[in-house]
Structures are given as structure tokens and as C-alpha cells.
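Worked Example 4.2. Consider the chain below.
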Amino acid sequence: ACFTRTGRNFFNDSALENAFLNRVQLALTHSGFWKKFNTDWVCLDTELMPWSAKAQSLLKDQYASVGASASAALADVIGNLEITQKRGIDGVGQLLESYMAKSEMIGDYTKAYGNYCWPVNGLDDYKLAPFHILATDGETHMNKNHKWHMETIKSICEADPKLMVATPYQLIDLDDDSQIESAIAWWTELTEKGGEGMVVKPLDFVAHGKKGLVQPAIKCRGKEYLRIIYGPEYTLQENLKVLKNRGLGRKRSLALREFALGLEALDRFVKKEPLRKVHECVFGVLALESEAVDPRL
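Applying the procedure from the previous section yields the following C-alpha cells:
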């Protein structure tokens, strides 16, 4: 089955879901996955794109409506300000520049969310990007590092490149300044082309530091992608000042607890413990997901 992060079915069309799962199953077969892991099932952590395939209402009501209404309104305002400016009224020029900048930001906003939406007429219009091989029969795979996960997943994706996408990655030694500069340049190039950004992770799937469990991943999104999250005008200095003063401690704490509970749920499942024991962890994750925290953080 194909589930969202909150346990809901991704597909509303059972025939499409079956066709999708069959393609994934064939890719796993052709890559030799089943024999290699001596299993007849696998739990994968993935991203299924495009957004528009699942979030039509979100796209229409939250993103497209903002872009369309703002574009129309600003065009009208700018047109009237240009007429007014020709009359030589003081202060209109500065106001016109301000609204033209707003119009440009709205254009960047609509372009940003448009990069993640495309028409879906059939299975070939979907793209699946796996990130982790979470578990197989009798075994979880959190004891393997991320390089192992990415390379193993790459071999699966190569079996069906039309559907499955292997995520590019880099291994960076944080004690090597040249590697850090290379990573920054890579991120800059990705985001300038409209890419979402990158996710920074410790090499080990489960990493511990001086204060205990380390955050499993940190998203480093690009400037334009963040317009989707924070709004078209988030790049204005007055808005950036507010964003930089956000308190992230609670969000980080929730993320660590969700991560730990998720690992425990998988471990109990592969050990064939009673489902009520698995559900203890699952419901704990769902409870933490429902905490009143700004989802944009």
C-alpha cells in the first residue's frame, strides 16, 4: 500500500494504486532486491510527486488563489499609479516602485510552486523518490548509514528510471573547508535552477552527540522555494527580521520524539510484537503531529 505520513491512502483510485505498486514491485524484482534481503515485503520512506496529484485543494485554495488574485490586483494598482505619476504628484514614484517590487515577488511565488506541479493523466506522470529502506522481513535498516541507503536505492531506481528517481547526494567532511565550499556551491546551483534545496543529515542513520540523540535531518531550502512556505513577500527585510527570531526549540524536540517513536514502532513490527504494542508508538507519533506548532518552521 502507499500511505501518506499521517497514515492516509495516497491514491483514491485503487486501479492506479495497484498499477503503481506493481511497477515498484517489478523494479525491486529486476534489481534483485527480494533475493538480496531474503524478504517478500519492504517499507520505504519516499516522496511521491507531483504535489498537484494529491494536494489539488491546497494548490487551488492556498497557492493558486493567492497568486491569481494578487497578480490581478497589483496589475490594476500599478496601472493607476503610473497614470497618477504622470500628473506629477509627489511621492507616487516611490509608491509605484514598491508595488512593482511586490508584483515581481508574486511572479516569483507563482513560478516557485509551479515547479512542483504538472498535469497527471496516468502512471507515467508520477515520480517516486525513495530516501530510506526502513525495514524488511525480520530486520530494520537504521543500523546502516545514509550512503548505504542512497546507493542501495540507486540500484532499485535504475531498474525503472521513468518512475523512480535516485536523489543526488554528497558526502561532506565538516573538517575540510574545500568540501564545505563545494557543498555550498552545489546547493546554490540547485536552488538557482528552481530546485527545492537539500537535506543535511549525519552519516549515521541514528546519530548521538554530547546532548543525546542528534536531529536526523535538517532541511536547507532555497530562497524561492521558501516563498511557498512563508509567502511572496518574506524576503522583505522587515519580514526576515521576524522570521529569524522564531523559537525552534519545541519543534526540534517534537521532531526527535517522533523520530524515536517511529524507530521503535518499526522495531516492534519486525519483531512481530502484538499490534497493540506497535500502535502505542504510532499513536504517539500522530499525537505529536497534532501538537499546535507552526508547520512552516
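The first helix runs from residue 14 to 30. The chain has ten helices and seven strands. Compare this with Example 4.1 before moving on.
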